[in-house]
What does this fold into?
Amino acid sequence: MFAQFELSHKTSIQAEYRYRETENGDLQLRFFEDDFRPNLREEDETKSIRLGFRHAFSPAHNLIGNFTYQETESSTRDQPSPNIDSDTKGDSEARSGEFQYLFRSNDVSVVGGGGYFNINSELDITTVVTPPPLTIPNPLPPPPFIIVPVPPITTLRKVDRDREHTNLYLYSYLNLLNNLTLTLGVSGDFFDTPSEALPDADLFNPKFGVIWNALPNTTLRGAVFRVFKRTLLTDQTLEPTQVAGFNQFFDDATGTEAWRYGGAIDQKFTESIYGGVEYSERDLTVPFSRPGGTPGELEWDEKLLRAYLYWTPHKWLAFSGEYLYEEFNRDQRSGDGALFVETNYIPLGINFFHPSGLSAFFKGTYVNQKGSFDRLDSTGTFIDGKDDFWVADAGISYRLPKRYGFITVGASNLFERYSQ
It folds into this structure.
């Protein structure tokens, strides 16, 4: 539920309530189709309230902010082997507040702000191990042996996962020339947690980006920046999420430090055809727990290449074609399922838009992948594999009059195709 109220032409407030309840089995994507946990069951219930405001001191000066409160209850049940049962129950309370100041002028624009995030979370882990029965000789045969059942062993453990994070940032956008925009920024992250497996961090993150319209129809982009992956409530933040068109925040593990380097060219060929090429690399320092629970770090790297071509022959019709290449190289001590992955994607799509508000889309994506993968039942042993397949997505949508909303029906992976 969402509501917004304009107190005056300068000030507005808003409120939002979200409720989400999920029940699922093992949703982790792994390469081998039989590599899953058939007995895993997860349940989550999340409630969140968000209050926000915006005040314009003048057309060039604005202040925005929001405050969020969230409660989560979760439970996980699993039977990883016939004689082991695991049950985990978790409760968490989270609060966050963010402010942002925006200044705009013809030559310089500034975005500055900060936030505070506090999460109090506790896990109760119950593990029941049922040893196999004992077989002992019978002193008075027959039978020659007696089977003696062994009572199960129950282990209870509490884990605190409290986290506290403060961030500050300042981004400046300098229009040095009519066709050149320079991004200079910095952010600071101050992360604190009592968890022994996740280290504290105080990090200084420089940001640099440039957008140059070298020709009327040609744009060059480049960026270098570092980012710290923190816990975000409802996966939202006021901090700018990209630098010169390059995304900053990925679904990395909490506490990950990452540098990203990228360059791109965007080209408009005609009034209806435009395309481009983008390449970037990410160097990640990922926290992980060593045997015994002591914190450690992993060095991962990723390479990302994207080429695209869009064509709109008619105002009702649009075609898209893309090529994406991903290469992941990970530490052998912990690769989160893979030591090396190389994936090629070719998405081809068609979109239809009618003035009545009716629209439809269809996209087919060819996937070719190879790599060295870790299986659930292995102990650090990686197995090579490769496969290719098509995935189809489709949907129809209707835009309600007067911007009242959309009604959409669609399906992802329409033909239930997946890697073998």
Observations:
- The domain at 54-116+159-411 is CATH 2.40.170.20 (Maltoporin; Chain A).
